[in-house]
Amino acid sequence: MSSSAFKVLSLVLSAFAIVQMTIGGDPDILTDFIAPANGIIDGNFFTFTGFRALSGQKTPPQAFKVIKASGAEFPALIGQSVSYAVLEFPAGSINPPHTHPRSAELLLVTQGSLQVGFVDTTNKLFTQSLQAGDMFVFPKGLVHFQHNADANKPALALSAFGSANAGTVSLPNTLFNSSIDDTVLALAFKTQVSTIQSLKKAFAP
């Protein structure tokens, strides 16, 4: 291959890689917004009231709870590459290790404290202790967690995403509440099939 042909091929491959990275998130839209199916567009379409329940809430939930404002709950977000979630942590609760395949997560602690962390692709763990007012970013697609280590006080956090549908893949639920063969999991975790079966029972709906 000649030098000029090689340069052209390199340019084409580089451009293709850039395009692939660009379309990795939400697709761009060619209009200001995506109109609802019923065609009714007014201020109500651009308003989400699902977080109102938090303002009058006096006691935290009994278990970890997420209230989402994504494209599914708030259709006006579709095409806008943004969404929110409120994370409610009772004392001692955890948001188990999980990933968001289509977006990074920017977390703001508004009440209490959280122990957070993520693992990068070199298997390095990054952790931090957050207080109310602190922010932490979880890079796109990486395994991460949040833990309210306080045994007496609840915690509350807001999460912002750069996608209307960031997606959530819970590692415990995906691995132990699916039809992956017990032997495959036992070999992967270097344990006994009976141990895998016990874990599957614990995560059964």
Write the layout of secondary structure elements.
Elements: H1 3-22, H2 52-55, E1 65-69, E2 83-89, E3 94-99, E4 105-111, E5 113-119, E6 125-131, E7 135-138, E8 143-147, E9 155-161, E10 169-170, H3 171-176, H4 182-188, H5 193-203
Antiparallel strand pairs: 1-2, 2-9, 3-8, 3-10, 4-7, 4-9, 5-6, 5-8
Helix pairs in contact: 4-5
Describe the structure.
With 205 residues, this protein is of the alpha+beta class. It has helices spanning 3-22, 52-55, 171-176, 182-188, 193-203, and strands at residues 65-69, 83-89, 94-99, 105-111, 113-119, 125-131, 135-138, 143-147, 155-161, 169-170. Strands 1-2-9-4-7 form a 5-stranded antiparallel β-sheet, with no helix packed on it. Strands 6-5-8-3-10 form a 5-stranded antiparallel β-sheet. The protein starts with a helix and ends with a helix.
Essential attributes:
5 helices; 5-stranded antiparallel sheet; alpha+beta; globular; disordered N terminus; 205 residues; 23% helix
Spatial strand sequence of the major β-sheet? 1-2-9-4-7
Low-confidence stretches: 1-23
From the N-terminal CA to the C-terminal CA, the straight-line distance is 59 Å
Question: N-to-C SSE series?
Answer: HHEEEEEEEEEEHHH
| Biggest β-sheet strands, sense, barrel | 5 strands, antiparallel
Average residue pLDDT: 88
Helix content: 10-25%
Q: Count the E strands.
A: 10
The rough form would be described as: globular
Number of separate helices: 5
Q: What structural class is derived from the secondary structure elements?
A: alpha+beta
- What percent strand? 25-35%
| CA-based gyration radius | 21 Å
